[in-house]
Amino acid sequence: MSRPAAKPRSDAAEHLKAVALRLFAERGPDGVTVRQIAEHAGQKNHAAVGYHFGSKEALIRELIIDGARAIDERRCAWLDACEAAGGPHSVHEIVDGMIRTSIDPDLAPGDESFNRFVLLLSLSQRAFFMDALEGRWNVGYQRCLDHLRRLMPDMPAKLKNQRFVFLGATLGALLSAREAELADRSRPHPMWQADATLAHAARAVAAMLEAPVMGRASGGQA
């Protein structure tokens, strides 16, 4: 049985979530206290996080689900359109779509925080992160992997799965680096502000997925 949709939060709670996400992205979840979240949100009551969410852990869980659901919905909508047109047609097209659906189109580039938050959380509390997802909100990601299996060069399934691990790590690091640079408003960031950079990143990551298998990895001699 699916869970009912979460009830809408008050404006104050949504503001706390936005502030907490930014702080977690900058310092990591373990480096931020509920008191600091309340203070940065302009709340005089330092128990505001507990009042609205019950605990810091519950707040983090809600942030994970909010962001993962939004990405999954964007990714599935993009895939639906691609498949309706007979695609996706290439590894590059899939990787480009994965990158672009990981970016929130409703936020200014310097206001994004979710990818940094997820990267830091998965490094320090991966079991908690996976538990919060409950095996959901990754349908689009798995659909992308299915298309990649179809379009990648012929190689053992074990090696394709290894490259998918490389893919996830690379995308997480790349998107987090972009967010961190654009969040620094003290100077321009021409590389990350250019749309061509994302296209170039997609081509580079696709090249990693499509690289020939050589040496010991292919069962031959190094």
UniProtKB/TrEMBL annotation:
The keyword Transcription applies. Keywords: DNA-binding, Transcription, Transcription regulation. One of its GO terms (molecular function) is DNA-binding transcription factor activity. Gene3D superfamilies: Tetracycline Repressor, domain 2. It comes from the Bacteria. Coiled coil: none annotated. Residues 18-63 form the HTH tetR-type domain. This is TetR/AcrR family transcriptional regulator. It comes from Glacieibacterium arshaanense. The lineage of its organism: Bacteria, Pseudomonadati, Pseudomonadota, Alphaproteobacteria, Sphingomonadales.
